[in-house]
Structures are given as C-alpha cells and as structure tokens.
Design brief:
This protein is an all-alpha fold. Helices cover 83% and strands 0% of the residues.
Length: 191
C-alpha cells in the first residue's frame, strides 16, 4: 500500500520527533548520572529557587522559534515537585506554546500585508502560498507534534495568508504533543 505524500511527510517527521525525544532522554539520564548524582542539591537549588525565571525563559524560547526544546522544561518540572504540580507545569507549558505559536501566526499575517516582506518572501522562499495550500494542515500538525520549530512554522503559515480559524483548530495538536511527551518524561523519571 502506497502512502500519500502528506502521510509520508507526517510519518517521517513524527519518527524524527521520537528520535529527538530519545536523544533528549538519553542526555537527561547521562546528565543525571554524571552531574546530579555528585552534588544534586547545589546544582538543582539554583534553578528551582527561581521558577519565574524559568517560565520567562520558556516563554521567550517558545516565541523565538523554540530555541530550547520544551522537553528540557518538562524534565525541570518533573524534578521540581509532585505529580500534580508537574501536570500544572505541563499545562502551563502547553498553553504558552500554543499562544506563542498563535502570536507568531499573527505576526506572519501582519507581515503578509507588507510589500517589502512579500518581495523578500517570494525571492527566498519561492512560492510559500502554494506549499501552504498543499501541505498547510499537515505542516501545522507535524510542527505541533514534532520538534520542528513551532513558532517559525506558525509565522510561515500566517505569512502565507492561511485562515486563522483553521490554524487555531489544527494547532490544538500542540496539546497532544505536550500530553504524550509529558507522559513519556513522567514515565522515564519513574525509572
């Protein structure tokens, strides 16, 4: 059975997302064994004493194209408190990510009205509107579920004139990503 190019795109990037998650978890286990096991109180105290700073760093990262993977913040949150507080943090991270994606989408829509930006966009990105019409839904879903830069994809989708209501509907997959990845982080922390 031959899969459509859209499904192939979704599966390929979904597998990349799982591979990235495995790399991050391996890094976490290695870090936990080599650094945290020797002086955990000193290392952790400097981060857990200022959660507001962590939340601001996370929000900035989500706005600026996901510079820091959300999974690292999930790992921070799972080590911070009990399971209920981890769920609160996870929900906070998901909402912030969704909203920052939408903010970038709106910036993209604003830029779409700028003639200079449109000339640059056609020169550099060739014809993004055509690609967004073809793969828009799948691009949103794949970016929402995988380590593709969520805010950058949202900016691109907005700058291509994608309808806001459709974007918001398919962007809800971002919450699924946080639920699945959050569950994986929680389960691996129990090991």
């Amino acid at each position: 059975m031959k899969l459509s190019p859209r499904i192939q795109f979704l599966v390929k990037n979904g597998l990349k997302g799982l591979a990235w998650m495995a790399v991050l978890l391996a890094f976490y286990f290695l870090f936990r064994e080599l650094v945290l096991s020797h002086a955990p109180d000193e290392w952790i105290a400097q981060f857990y004493a200022r959660p507001g700073v962590i939340y601001l760093i996370y929000a900035a990262s989500e706005f600026f194209f996901g510079i820091i993977p959300p999974e690292l913040f999930m790992i921070w949150a799972i080590n911070k408190a009990d399971a209920l507080h981890y769920l609160y943090n996870l929900a906070f991270f998901a909402v912030v990510s969704y909203l920052m994606g939408y903010l970038n989408f709106l910036i993209g829509q604003f830029l779409n009205k700028n003639e200079t930006f449109n000339v640059w966009k056609k020169k550099v990105l060739k014809d993004p509107e055509k690609q967004v019409r073809k793969y828009g839904i799948f691009l949103i879903i794949v970016a929402a579920l995988t380590p593709l830069p969520w805010s950058a994809v949202s900016l691109l989708i907005g700058s291509a004139g994608y309808p806001s209501k459709r974007y918001l509907k398919y962007a809800l997959f971002r919450f699924l990503r946080f639920a699945v990845y959050g569950y994986i982080v929680y389960q691996t922390h129990q090991i």
